[in-house]
Design a protein that fits this description.
Strand order of the largest sheet: 2-1-5-6
Number of strands: 6
Organism: Schizophyllum commune (strain H4-8 / FGSC 9210) (Split gill fungus)
Distance between the termini: 19 Å
CATH architecture of the largest domain: Up-down Bundle
CATH class of the largest domain: Mainly Alpha
Pfam families: GST_C_7 (PF22041), GST_N_2 (PF13409)
InterPro entries: Glutathione-S-Trfase_C_sf (IPR036282), Glutathione_S-Trfase_N (IPR004045), GST_UstS-like_C (IPR054416), Thioredoxin-like_sf (IPR036249)
Number of domains: 2
Protein name: GST N-terminal domain-containing protein
């Protein structure tokens, strides 16, 4: 088959975005050949319109918002936007590959992600998002800073949590991940490596993308990542390491 074209946002460290990382994991898990086409932030809308990708959200002014990831599959002529839609498409188009949404598991996956991200994302994102600007290339850095600071009404640096607020957010993140990992049990109560059991699913790749986004953006020596390493006696990091083989080369 012709390689799937995977549209992703570049950085000085390769693939870094939590949204695009989960699709990179998914493609590698399924063993589907793909090539990455890097698209800088200011060019995302133009590229999506050019290839016929649908918008994924609506801006406050009512105009369409185009985001990545997007895939273009030369074998079927399909162009798909939005992570979950891409995952479902890959399951349907390539039924002989491992399932991202095994039958009857979509509701369980959605519930688990809603529980985790409903608490962990608001707590941790403010410590990560302002630092993204430092890993982007010159093609995206000015755009990212300008658009985010306009939305925030302050500089990125002013938005970074500090002191007791930072400690509280890390504690909230720990609690959210411990509750998420508590779900990892089979019918007999035995602990499992992944959400649904012995094999990973799309929810696992979504969570791995979130963790890797933190790690790549802030670095292994950051206080945030050091905290993550300590959560659940290292089980959070072990979970990420168990999925590393599906990460592939982040620069490819």
């Amino acid at each position: 088959m012709a390689p799937i074209i995977f549209y992703s946002i570049p950085s000085q460290k390769g693939c870094w975005s939590l949204h695009t990382l989960k699709i990179r994991y998914a493609l590698n898990y399924k063993g589907l050949p793909f090539r990455t086409e890097w698209v800088e932030y200011p060019d995302i809308e133009k590229k999506c319109k050019e290839i016929g990708a649908e918008p994924t959200e609506t801006k406050e002014d009512g105009s369409p918002l185009y985001t990545l990831p997007v895939i273009s599959d030369p074998s079927t002529g399909k162009v798909i936007s939005d992570g979950p839609k891409i995952a479902k498409y890959l399951d349907e188009a390539y039924p002989d590959t491992p399932k991202l949404y095994p039958p009857g598991t979509e509701a369980t996956q959605k519930e688990a992600m809603a529980q985790l991200f409903g608490k962990a994302a608001p707590a941790l994102r403010p410590m990560v998002v302002p630092c993204v600007v430092h890993i982007l290339g010159e093609g995206s850095k000015p755009y990212f800073r300008a658009t985010r600071e306009k939305a925030l009404g302050c500089t990125l640096e002013e938005k970074i949590p500090k002191g007791e607020d930072r400690k509280l957010r890390l504690e909230q993140g720990r609690e959210a991940f411990e509750a998420f990992l508590a779900r990892f049990k089979d019918a007999s109560g035995k602990e499992t490596p992944f959400l649904l059991g012995e094999a990973p699913c799309f929810a696992d790749f979504s969570v791995a993308g979130f963790l890797q986004w933190i790690r790549v953006t802030l670095g292994d020596e950051s206080d945030v990542w050091k905290a993550v390493e300590s959560w659940s006696d290292g089980r959070v990091v072990k979970y990420l390491e168990d999925l590393r083989k599906y990460e592939g080369d982040p620069r490819a």
